[in-house]
Amino acid sequence: MAAHTDTAAESCHDHATHGYITAKDDYLKRLRRIEGQARGLQRMVEEEKYCIDILTQVSAMTKALQAVAMGLLEDHISHCVVDAAIAGGPEAEAKIKEATDAIARLVRS
Amino acid sequence: MAAHTDTAAESCHDHATHGYITAKDDYLKRLRRIEGQARGLQRMVEEEKYCIDILTQVSAMTKALQAVAMGLLEDHISHCVVDAAIAGGPEAEAKIKEATDAIARLVRS
Amino acid sequence: MAAHTDTAAESCHDHATHGYITAKDDYLKRLRRIEGQARGLQRMVEEEKYCIDILTQVSAMTKALQAVAMGLLEDHISHCVVDAAIAGGPEAEAKIKEATDAIARLVRS
Amino acid sequence: MAAHTDTAAESCHDHATHGYITAKDDYLKRLRRIEGQARGLQRMVEEEKYCIDILTQVSAMTKALQAVAMGLLEDHISHCVVDAAIAGGPEAEAKIKEATDAIARLVRS
């Protein structure tokens, strides 16, 4: 985390920023909708709705969350990973390992 | 799902209710925490945090959501499915099919 | 569903057997096809096919495997879990816990 | 990262090949073990083993398969995607899209 100066990591962060600027509002809108789904689930539990209907909503919410993750991952690979790759060196390999570890966590979660 | 009278579905609903009464507060607490995670993700995107850190949070949130689903499913099988099974008939088979369909959606989501 | 002797566990095993008899050939056919997919993947790696095409086959094979799991799970709930539930007692609860643990492993795998 | 001739796609294929050469035997060994797991499952069904034990084996096999997918994906990103990215142009974007689509299929499968 700490104190990068002029590494690929920094250019990564810059680009990630630029990547965000275009899509940030879209991500925020999707995350607000997901927050709404979490509130909707509370309401369903509160009103003791039918379990299967609640589970259907949990599946829909999980799908929405995974779609956000996929978008972020695509942005991340397009910017951070590719920039680190162009810069080359051990940083490049580290970025790719970091990204595939994140993917492995998504596949398992 | 409208107007059951004296079917296994009703006993299911009654039991589901009883099932909820014990654990309802626990589910609500977990869902509020998940709602908080959705807000935390918005803050991370807003502040343009590092992608991989956001993805780690998405994985944690997905896991929390799946744990809620597993709890609900266990309650549902213990009450609705088992009651329908004891009552027997086509209702029993329908309940089991409905539950395994919900599981299949969770496995895929 | 006659002639339980000792425990629900034993009747479970008997019924599971009966459950298998109807669908056993279907499961074996599907598992042989999955075995064939594993051999197909070896051939693709051997011939150095395009990564993405190999990954597509891995996804297809995973889906086929999950479908087998869903079928087995439905059979298991219909027979073992339900029989244990009808017999009642701590065995019933243990069976449900065991089944939901297996589901949790499938959701995560 | 030498000697691209025509397109990034071609260099991708070349590099993928090189990527394979180092790890090919390892992938083949893992896939043979997975094929063995598929045969083991057939034996378990044949001998009518306890459902839950079969499901545990299905989960283990799915995990092994996903681990192969993760390895292939890491190789693919390190070689094809990065090379296409260095070459730049619409090909680069297409490669990233193709990789994230494959990831999305893995997450859902």
TrEMBL record, chains A, B, C, D:
GO terms of molecular function: DNA-binding transcription repressor activity; metal ion binding; transcription cis-regulatory region binding
The source's superkingdom equals Bacteria
- Record's InterPro entries? Metal_Tscrpt_repr (IPR003735), Metal_Tscrpt_repr_sf (IPR038390)
Per the record, the major location class is: cytoplasm
In the UniProt record, does the keyword Cytoplasm occur? yes
Alphabetized UniProt keyword annotations: Copper, Cytoplasm, DNA-binding, Metal-binding, Repressor, Transcription, Transcription regulation
Its subcellular locations are: Cytoplasm
Q: Which family does it belong to?
A: Belongs to the CsoR family.
Name used for this protein in its record:
Metal-sensing transcriptional repressor
What does UniProt list as this organism's lineage?
Bacteria, Bacillati, Actinomycetota, Actinomycetes, Mycobacteriales
